[in-house]
Amino acid sequence: MRNIKLTLAYDGTDFYGWAIQPDVPTIQGTIVDVLCKITQEKIRLHASGRTDAGVHALGQVASFKTRSIIPTANLQRALNCLLPPTIRVLEAKDMPLDFHARWHAQAKTYRYRILRAAVCPPFLWRYVYHYPFPLDIGAMFAAVPQFEGEHDFSSFSSWSSKDDEQRHMVRTVLSAMLSWQPAEQELVFGIKGRAFLRHMVRKIVGTLIEVGKGRLAASDIPGIFAARDRTRAGPTVPAAGLCLLEVEYPEAYR
Asked: Which region among 1-5, 61-65, 157-161, 205-209 has the lowest average model confidence (pLDDT)?
């Protein structure tokens, strides 16, 4: 038995997220179908975490076990020959049998891109949130540090405590930053954490935009955390601007 780690990049626009669903295209389902053809086995593929419909990745990690003897370099080539061009395997690597892409992940880094230009070029619309309207960027910068550290992110998730009283809503954000890239006319939000709730990053960005519009202030954010009420935070911004950049693992599993 072998345990293989895949590092993946994908354009999520045409997929209904990572997880297999009946009768719709998903990232996991597409890769599993190809792996089954290559190995002639039933494959269970585990990711570091699920990405939602329309979300992209440059460094997603997945793992699976197989009895196939195909070398990893050949496996990578075969996958990239059979997968659609919107999904690429950047690396295939043999790992210890106890490695699990989800359970051993230590941190994930996401990026969200907001295009501020008056017109969104047709080759960018799949990867940015086009928002050409006035924003107080200085106020947004001031609000970003409020999201760092350990908090109950109930207000910044599509889940609520009423959905599942046992669901753990506390998450730790290791770093968060906002940058302005004048040449590209983009605001870029980056966030690194150990784990994230569903829609958490997109609701944080939506809240920052509400700060930029003057509807909220940085000083309002602690109260939004305390309320544990998702209606108090900003809207969930579109998936197109979100990309999973990197998943970090202990040295033994890199």
From this structure: 157-161
Instruction: Please state the pTM of the whole predicted model.
Output: 0.94
For the chain, what is the radius of gyration of the CA atoms? 19
- Helix (H) or strand (E) run with residue 110 in it: strand 107-115
User: Where in the sequence is the domain holding 170, given as residue range(s)?
Assistant: 107-246
Based on the domain organization, do 92 and 141 belong to the same domain? no
Amino acid at 38: I
> Which of the residues 52, 94, 136, 152 is marked catalytic?
52
**Residue 23 bears catalytic tag:** no
Q: Are 177 and 251 contacting, i.e. CB atoms less than 8 angstroms apart?
A: no
The pLDDT of residue 25: 98
How far is C-alpha 66 from the geometric centre of its chain's CA atoms?
27
Q: Are strands 149-152 and 129-130 parallel, antiparallel or unpaired?
A: unpaired
